[in-house]
Amino acid sequence: MITEILNVIILSISSILILFFLTKLMGNREMSQLSMFDYINSITIGSIAAEMATSLEDYHKPLTAMITYAIIITITAIISSKSLKFRRFVSGKSLVLYENGELYRENFKKARLDLSEFLSQCRNNGYFNLSDLQSVILEANGRLSFLPQSNKRPINPSDMNLSLPSEKPIANVILDGKVLEKNLKSTGNNITWLENEIKNQGINKIQDIFLATCDIDNNLSIYVKAPKKTTHSIFE
Q1: Does the pLDDT of residue 31 top 70, yes or no?
Q2: Which of 38, 66, 92, 151 could form a Cys-Cys staple with 140, CB 3.0–4.6 A?
Q3: Architecture of the structural domain at 171-224
Q4: pLDDT tens per residue, range 193-211
């Protein structure tokens, strides 16, 4: 009995590790919005991994199946990247559902999409009136893309002939009391600069900092470790 339990634990850990490495092999696309082909293969590999965890004697069979599925998905991804026709066959293609005030009923039928669900998705994205939209496209991954009318979209700097300086992502330089040296170096600063900036903000120990970020203008934002429990909550 104990031996069987230990075998299940070992096989469970093994299946998780194998599934992790196979997912890394297949790429991040398996974690993003999935096409129908990716979805089918992902849930199949997951179910095979679960079966492997309890297959005490024939674990090599589900293991072989998992590897086979991963190889097929990888080969399919390579072919899809080289052939547009094959990619459209496997992943599907975009469908225009609405454009210039007209709903394309045939495309709704192809997508198996109910009009009520379509309108719900519009509202979820902030469009309560179809006349505010120029186009709505159903992407191959099942998500809807919205193009608002030119007079309904948000104003951006180019509309006002404004030229703004380029931006870059804010860098995390301290995370949970530890200095991220590579990130700090990418900002053009060093540990001496960081320590001086921390002291200028009245903080003595780096270990007391939960998060510190540095922007393009070398502005350091510091968030100290809060107490484990708050004294009150306005969300109760």
Answers
A1: no
A2: 92
A3: 2-Layer Sandwich (3.30)
A4: 999 999 999 998 899 899 9
